[in-house]
Amino acid sequence: MPDGYDAVVVGAGCSGSVFAARVASRGFRVLLVERKREDEIGEDCIDFVENEGFELSSIEPPKSPESLGHILRVDIVSPDGSTRMPIVDFPYQIIDRRLLAQRLLKRAKDAGAEVLTQCIATGVEIDNGYAVAVNTDRGKFRTKLVIGASGLDRVVCRDLPKGMGIPRRIRTVDHTCIYRETRELDPSFTWHGPDVGVLEYHVGRYGGYSWICAIGDGVVDIGSAVQDREGFPDPKELVYGFVRSTPGIGEKVLRRSGGRIPTRRPLNTMVASGLMILGDSACQAIPIIGRGIGGAMIGATYAADAASFALEAGDVSRRGLWSYNYNYMRDRGAHMAALDCMRIFLQRLKLKEFAWAISKGIIDERSVKAAIAGRFVPARIHAKLKGILKGLKDVSLISRFELAGNIADRVFDLYRQYPSEYYHPDFVEWSQQSQYLFEDISTV
Hints:
Elements: E1 5-10, H1 14-24, E2 30-33, E3 46-50, H2 51-56, E4 67-70, E5 73-77, E6 84-88, E7 92-96, H3 97-110, E8 114-116, E9 121-127, E10 130-136, E11 139-148, E12 175-185, E13 198-203, E14 209-216, E15 219-227, H4 235-244, E16 249-262, E17 271-272, E18 275-277, H5 293-313, H6 318-347, H7 351-359, H8 365-372, H9 381-389, H10 396-416, H11 424-441
Parallel strand pairs: 1-2, 1-11, 2-8, 5-13, 11-18
Antiparallel strand pairs: 3-7, 4-7, 5-6, 9-10, 10-11, 12-15, 12-16, 13-14, 14-15, 17-18
Helix pairs in contact: 1-3, 1-5, 5-6, 6-10, 9-10, 10-11
């Protein structure tokens, strides 16, 4: 294996493989470093991926057996169960996550990327402010670009020196803990849950959500997510409690998975000199629902295009890689940041306040559908509120919703105005404005 690559990608999951395929197809030498065996790459679970993730990354949509069908409808259920909001024409597919990861890895190999499995990356070598090599238990691999795509592990970020600009750690409260199981239905019971292809979301409890989706052939996917916060329950116990209390769900577990996922806005910068961060490492999941595969594929596509341009130009400095930041923030990051604003606000609501907002249409079908698809709808809260103010004695909650919507609008506009080129004073000023807005939303 030659020493010296154009790019070494740490992590051969969805984002790493999409990046590697796109860059390798342009004639660059790319190495994928992965700690798992090749047949273990990709979580062994069922997941939901937005169609846009395939469209914007130019990845062929999945087919059977990778695809398990489309989501026909989503039913949003309020925390008290009193309000149900059906959303039709939902742009998501039900997929086998491991089969998708394996397909994307094969795509990278077919494009010419090399893959080194069962290899543990231990850190990044920095020389004169540039990432120049990846250290592993199998030796050192020198490279022009280091790509961090190891998910929550964030191995390339953990020991970065001060001044690189990329945070080494993400705050605990900006994570969601998730647990899910795929189970067989018990044929001795009549199933009274959602129809095949209907995804039922229960929102608002413990800063997160729970779901159930019948996916055909007598199989149901069940999961729960809670904010990673002291005193909140283990999502596994919530899933077990639901299973025990729901006739028709069988004892046989077909698949199970769990862990933590960052559900905050994207990092202020996802590049440093010689270094790029993708996927969960860069916080590219949709904040409201923690879905990360589509966002990871899209982010990897933006990163690959910027990396290819920088390698061709011979400039892998922060300035040379900056177009990844700019294009991502303008086209997708602005939506993620505004949705993160609303996530922070909604997680501070009491359950009865959350339920009331859904029942009154303040949280409405249009905004929910957009949010779950990774899109922020600018607030039109003031017009909605006029119709319900008359009979309401306490207007403090109304005011809070209106203020939160206004801050989210300002965040959206700010991220759309992300600096187009790296100039340190401009970036510092932009970062300070972002910090101030997120300080404001945390007090609403």
